[in-house]
Batch of 3 targets.
Target 1
Amino acid sequence: MSCCIYGTGKSSTRNAVSSPEERGKGLGKKLIQYGIENYSINELAVNEQNPLARGFYEHMGFQVCKRTDHDEQGNPYPLLYMKLKGTAR
């Protein structure tokens, strides 16, 4: 699979991934837009150590609203929680 979104919940998603050879072709943008339009996705979490993903989500209209020192499994991977601009806090 070259691009996918998984871990969706009520108005949030946990992961969107694409293979390096598929980046820049608009697939991730289409998936995020589909999630926003069809599943009301307005929140997500991104690993702080992934600046490409953070930049992509910021480009898509998300902004950081919270930071943690550990991921959801307690591992030392800081997460940035992001919300779509213009949605309730």
Target 2
Amino acid sequence: MHSAIFEKKPMCNFKTLCYAPDGYLIVCNECRHFQLAFQTTLLTMTARDLQVFHTLVKENREYNPPETHTGRKNIYIPTPLEGHGIILNGKELEALYQLLETAEVNFKAECLLNLFKTAGS
């Protein structure tokens, strides 16, 4: 069986944007793809895919506020891979949201620092 999934290069030159108890988000310094690991799921995404995924997580968090969490896995988040998604409970949704928010702040801070490095060269 031949599949494009097996042809992807590993992210060997990466920067960790966030490392949390339930997962991490890294960015490859060469191809600028992102890799999100959360619990038993590992996704490699473009910046655009990550932005869309992050927006879906934010929207689901708004629709499922923490005070309504029942512990049941009934929150579906689609992934960039067609036909695949993640099913979470409220606590897991909050953990994923916090991971993505922290990573976003760290990535933006890194981009700003790089602008200053470039301007100072």
Target 3
Amino acid sequence: MIKQDLFSDLQVQEDACFLCGTHSGITQEHVFAKWMQHGYNLWDKRLTLLNGTLLQYRNLKIPCCCHCNGVELGRLENLVSNAVGQGYESVKQLGDRPLYLWAAKIFYGILRKEWSLLRDRRQPEAGPIVPEEVLRSFSNLHLFLQGSGGATISPARLHIPCCSSTSMTLAESIVSASATASLT
């Protein structure tokens, strides 16, 4: 039985990758992928955020490190994009998991963006559109997203001492957390 809070160090910082939490090599991930925006004429369309603010789809971006953006999420986006391009039957053959991960990335990405925007720019003290505690309430979804393509998570996030590397895969983290918990 794991007695520690695995989600207490979830990185919700503007300059951290939304997926793995690193602060290095940060790029901007389009929440709705460019292929989708162009293919469905969304690039100049606007999405209504929870506070009523209109934001162009092309500006709905969140911080993401080069690895998560180009490799981990790239695999998922390519898989879905290729299936969509081939039609309904190909999308159906993907199965539930990739489609769920893809939809979850969009959902969590919107929440993450709304966490970074003020509810009312005239009253900064009102806080963000989505409070941090709401974003944190989706930590299980966030952890599931980290496993989307073998994404790595920081050992510090799991409170696991690690001597030889700075990150581990989700599977390695679970095994290590289980071993650590069984020792306590």
